[in-house]
Every structure is written in C-alpha cells, then in structure tokens.
Write a structure and sequence with these properties.
This protein has helices at residues 8-18, 41-56, 62-68, 73-85, 102-113, 116-131, 176-184, 187-196, 214-227, 274-288, and strands at residues 89-91, 98-100, 137-144, 147-154, 230-233, 240-248, 254-263. The chain has 289 residues and is α+β, with helices and mostly antiparallel strands.
Length: 289
C-alpha cells in the first residue's frame, strides 16, 4: 500500500483561505487582540483587507472589498498597492477583482511546517497503513477559529463520505474529532465555537434531531480523558463511526487529531478496542521515530 502523503496542492489551496486566520491557541505561542503595546496601526488597519478576502472566500471588486474592510475605496487602494508588491493580494487579469495572493499560501505552509504534530500525524498514518490493520479513511485535523478543520486525509480502501475532504470543518460537538479538541483545549478557546454550534442537530440530512445537553457533553468529555480516545457513532454521519486519537506535543498539549471513520458495526468501536489501540500505538511509535 502506498504510504499517505500530505498533498501540497491541497494544503496550498486550503491555506490560501485559512492562513490569515489560523491561530496557535494551545501550542504555547501567543497572538491575538490581547497583545499589549503601541504596535503599528497601519498594519492592523491593512489586515482588515486580508480578513475581508478570507471571509468572502472569493475575489472581490475594489468597492466591495473596501466596504467589507470598512474603508473608502481610495484608502483601500493604497493598502492594496503595498499588498500586491509583496504578493499578499493579487489582481485578476480578466475581472480586475482582488483575491489572496501566493504569499498567504507560503505563510500557511510555513506555519504547517513549524507544527511538529502534523509530522507526527503523517508518520502515524504511514505506520498504520504499513501494518495493514486498518483499511478505513484516516484524517488529520487542527483547530481553527471555526473549530476543527481537516488538513490531510488518506481515504484507505473503503471510501469515505464525499464531504470529508481537506478544508472540511467538523462539528465541534457531534464528531469524535471535535470532542477530542473540546476535551483538551481551554474553554476560553472552545466556548465561542460551542456557542455557535448550539443550534446544530446531530444529522445534517434530516431525520430525528437530537441535541446534546451541557451535562451530557461534560460526561462525554470525561470519558475521553479516561480512555484517551473519542468515539462517536451514527450522529453527524448516519451509519458511520469516528474514532479520534490525540497528537500531543512535548508539553502534552494537543497539536492535532488523527481520526478514523468507518461503517458502524464493521469494526471494534470501543474506546479501548482494537482499532483505538492501534491508532494510539501508531501515534506513540511516530513520536519515537
């Protein structure tokens, strides 16, 4: 079986969108509005243009981009000229609209390279495939401002639901991946995402809607701490079970999550079962290598 690889094209595409807003919460690095000091106001102001392009998710004409960044078109244009010089923003030849430039992708890829957890996760997936014991889809996720986001995947031989691709956001409450992050990250980080997910139902395809109470969620998170594994069955994706394992850094802080997704009932779904143990052993072996 061919060892999985992080697809540089997929990562590049993902980070053209995500690099300006990925944070380093939980990794021991600082960043954010809480940083004190005078700073350079023009950088803070100019960044609003990048943030507006991230939020739009598509190229914008000058007038719309300026409005989204709460600037006049003339003021926005001055900033855009500088951003174009350093390839943070580019102008489409045909439409004349503006979009994020290749330098934002370079920044995102550099950010990925500095996260040891992703290298460990990649090696863990390779070890799992080489051992040949798990044939289902395997995914690597990190935490973003919108919750867990998939940054790499190996579909295995069984296939996976179409929507689970690089760039897909997992529910922080109703997926094994999301619950693993909730169990490890501080509430100051996860609270806004949990609040935004309160209205979610367990299945986006209809059927009987179920909502998790706060007490039930706390019980689930307690079990994750007990077993070191998160298991969710038939909630977000009917007929499918997800098993998530943590990738911790040298300070035991969560850096990434490796998740296996397979057909419910076709494998050992216990948090101390064969599949869960295999995932934990592979991550441990990857950390030693």
């Amino acid at each position: 079986m061919t060892p999985p690889k992080f697809n540089i094209v997929e990562l590049y595409s993902l980070y053209l969108y995500w690099s300006p807003r990925l944070n380093t919460l939980g990794s021991g690095m600082d960043g954010g509005a809480h940083i004190e000091g005078k700073g350079i106001q023009s950088i803070d102001v100019g960044f609003r243009l990048l943030h507006a392009l991230v939020e739009a998710g598509c190229p914008l004409p000058l007038k719309e981009l300026a409005a989204a960044a709460n600037m006049t078109p003339s003021k926005a244009h001055n900033y855009i000229v500088s951003f174009r010089r350093i390839r943070m923003i580019v102008k489409e030849a045909g439409s004349g609209h503006y979009c994020l430039g290749p330098m934002t992708g370079d920044l995102g890829l550099s950010y990925l390279a500095q996260r040891d957890g992703l290298s460990v996760a990649e090696r863990a997936i390779r070890i799992i495939r080489e051992r040949g014991r798990l044939q289902y889809g395997l995914f690597v996720s990190i935490w973003s401002e919108k919750g867990p986001v998939i940054v790499a995947c190996d579909e295995g031989g069984s296939g996976v639901p179409y929507e689970l691709r690089v760039g897909h956001h997992s529910s922080p409450i109703y997926t094994a991946t999301g619950r693993m992050f909730l169990a490890h990250l501080p509430r100051s980080v996860t609270a806004p995402v949990i609040a935004a997910a309160v209205g979610e139902t367990t299945s986006p395809w209809g059927g009987q809607a179920q909502k998790l109470t706060e007490a039930e969620l706390e019980c689930e998170l307690s079990d994750i701490w007990k077993f070191g594994i998160a298991v969710v069955t038939d909630l977000r994706i009917p007929g499918m079970t997800g098993i998530a394992a943590p990738v911790l850094d040298h300070r035991d802080k969560l850096d990434a999550v490796v998740t296996m997704i397979g057909v419910s009932g076709s494998f050992d779904m216990a948090p101390d079962g064969t599949e869960a143990t295999e995932m934990l052993n592979a991550i441990a072996a990857a950390q030693r290598s």
